[in-house]
Amino acid sequence: MSTAFNRQIQESPSPSYVFGSADEFAQPRHQELSALFDAQSKRHLTQLGVGEGWTCLEVGGGGGSIASWLCDRVGEFGGVLATDIDLRFLSALRYPNLAVRRHDIQTEGLPERQFDLAHARLVLMHLPERELALERMLKSLKPGGWIVIEEMDDLSIMPDCSVNPAEEELQVRRAFQHVLASRGAELRYGRLLPQKLQAQGLVNVGAEASVSMWKGRSAGTRFMKLACQQLREQIIGSGLISQSEFDAEIKRIDEQDFLMPSPMLWTAWGQIPMEFASKRG
What is the CATH number for 226? Predict the structure, then answer.
């Protein structure tokens, strides 16, 4: 891997990113995300052929579970660059083929035409400058390189008791969505990804979406509870839910008989065409 990666850029975390890593909820939230989505992420990356000798970019590496898997997958002749605005979890990883970099993709560029794979999960939808971030990820790819983006569509499937009386619609989820949107998040971004990749001239574009039914005390509801608790002040400050209502619904999420459909997670992928790559940027 290029020595240009083998350093940590010491810059302040972006204030625009909603979920920081400094509070008590960050590490368990990363753990629940891994339990929910790592198997799906690995399946898609495996199907694209990620393997020995690949150079990979992991944007918003978070808790480091996918970066760790990539390091094992690409072996000693491959390499992984994992970036994030906060390195407190990534910096604990110990792989000889891993470099970590403190980096805000909204304001800083990336090495161009360097990687066989660029991957991000639940990052771009939260960034006001998400289109610039996507363009930078694409420019980082070699001719023939792949991009894999995993993002939520948090609006298309909501609880509907007219379809299933057991499903519960919570005020706290609506307030949570409101807070994210007010901070610049695009809550349907996952659904928009296939046409965005096609518009960038990629080939072999594909996409897949998944929805689960989350019940109380599952990884999904634990993740939802942690995310809401992390944004508690902002959710209550929205005026859409009172403190007592917030506390009651957080308690309800934790009960065994609670049931709700998850947000839809989209995975979209595409490849830089060999003849087009030389014309980019």
Answer: 3.40.50.150
Pairing of strands 79-84, 115-121: unpaired
Answer whether residue 167 is part of any domain: yes
pLDDT tens digits along 254-263: 999 999 999 9
Question: How confident is residue 278, by pLDDT bands cut at 50, 70 and 90?
Answer: very low
Q: Residue 155: which domain range?
A: 7-13+20-274
Nearest partner of 231 among 90, 13, 63, 26, judged by Cα: 26
157 pLDDT band (50/70/90 cuts)? confident
Which of these, 85, 39, 23, lies nearest to 59 by C-alpha position?
A: 85
| 279 assigned to some structural domain | no
Among 253, 265, 227, 269, which Cα is nearest to 38's?
265
Dihedral, CA atoms, 240, 28, 183, 127, nearest 10 degrees? -150
When divided into structural domains, the chain yields a total of 1
* Beta-carbon count within 10 A of 250 CB: 16
CA distance 201 to 130: 18
Mean pLDDT of 82-99: 97
Q: In this predicted model, which residue has the larger pLDDT, 50 or 163?
A: 50
Domain for residue 280, yes or no?
A: no
Name residue 227's beta-bridge partners. none
CA distances from 153 to 92, 181, 189, 212, 218 (A): 31, 12, 6, 13, 20
* Rounded CA separation 242/230 (Å): 16
In a domain, 281, yes or no: no
Does the global pTM surpass 0.85? yes
pLDDT of residue 20: 66
CA contacts within 13 A on the Cβ side of 60: 24
Q: Which token pair is 137?
A: 């990820």
**What mean pLDDT comes out for the span 262-267?**
97
Q: Which two tokens stand for residue 125?
A: 């939808």
